[in-house]
Amino acid sequence: MDERKRYTYRFTVAEDAIDFNGHVGNVTYLQWMIEAATAHSESLGWGFEQCRKLGGTWVAKSHVIEYRHPAFENETLLMETWLEEIGKIKAVRRYRITKARDGSIVCEGETEWIFVDSETMRPMRIPQQIVEAFGRGKS
Length: 139
Fold this sequence. Notes:
By secondary structure, the chain is an alpha+beta fold.
């Protein structure tokens, strides 16, 4: 994979991410993944507004998250995301969150995103400009 198409950033776990078990709550990981997908798309020039100008938007079809190690308040984490594949109407995005201190994997995830017409919410072909920006065709 073309490494420049990966998007990575570092952040610190905030107090409001902690659940009743004393570690990051499940829903928070999903929120972080959606934030990472949005930031990655924006960094390539294809955020929400740019997609809407082409008449489309992304909706999630499915999410899969596999938890490996818990994360705690004030820990520094690295979020990495990339498109595993992009097809005619669907893109599969992968995520990996690791601990900055030792590289251990906190969780990995995958979202299947469908590109839809922003008016009808029916699937539409992903514009070629977007496919080229992410640099991934269906393998």
